[in-house]
């Protein structure tokens, strides 16, 4: 049971990183926009759900995982729904860790420069 939940958590972190942090989805949207409009559309302000929604992608990726691994059960589906709902919090946590490490490195540089 814990292995399935841990794997769902890993899927969530990977999806949140790819969709919300890496910028890969924006590049994909720009490419699709360029191909479909032959470069005539200037705005990239459109949604491409579920691809540009970390909540949606966490849910659908997790659901695919549960089905492929034959672990589909109501309890896992409920846990997956909660994980998908918390995708914004996971994004904030990842950015907080990144900002904290940057701050620590800046403090170390200040100590070295003295």
Summarize the structure.
With 114 residues, this protein is mainly alpha-helical. It contains five helices and no strands. It has one domain.
Taking all residues together, what is the mean pLDDT? 92
Which regions have little confidence, pLDDT < 50, spanning 5+ residues? none
Assign an overall shape: flat
Tell me the number of structural domains: 1
| Residues in helices, as a percent range | over 70%
List the secondary-structure elements in sequence, H or E: HHHHH
**Tally of helical segments:** 5
Quote the beta fraction.
Answer: under 5%
Distance between the termini: 52 Å
Number of strands: 0
Report Rg: 19 Å
Structural class: mainly alpha
Main sheet properties: none
Topology readout:
Layout: H1 2-21, H2 24-37, H3 54-68, H4 74-85, H5 87-113
Helix pairs in contact: 1-3, 1-4, 1-5, 3-4
Explain what this protein looks like in three dimensions.
The chain contains 5 helices and no strands. It has one domain. The protein has 114 residues and is mainly α. The model has no long low-confidence stretch (mean pLDDT 92).
């Amino acid at each position: 049971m814990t292995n399935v939940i841990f794997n769902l958590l890993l899927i969530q972190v990977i999806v949140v990183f790819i969709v919300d942090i890496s910028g890969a989805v924006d590049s994909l949207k720009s490419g699709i926009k360029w191909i479909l409009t032959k470069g005539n559309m200037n705005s990239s302000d459109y949604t491409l759900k579920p691809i540009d929604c970390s909540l949606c992608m966490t849910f659908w990726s997790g659901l695919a995982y549960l089905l492929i691994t034959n672990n589909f059960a109501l309890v896992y589906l409920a846990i997956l729904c909660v994980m998908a709902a918390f995708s914004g919090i996971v994004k904030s946590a990842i950015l907080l860790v990144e900002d904290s490490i940057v701050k620590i490195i800046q403090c170390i540089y200040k100590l070295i420069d003295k």
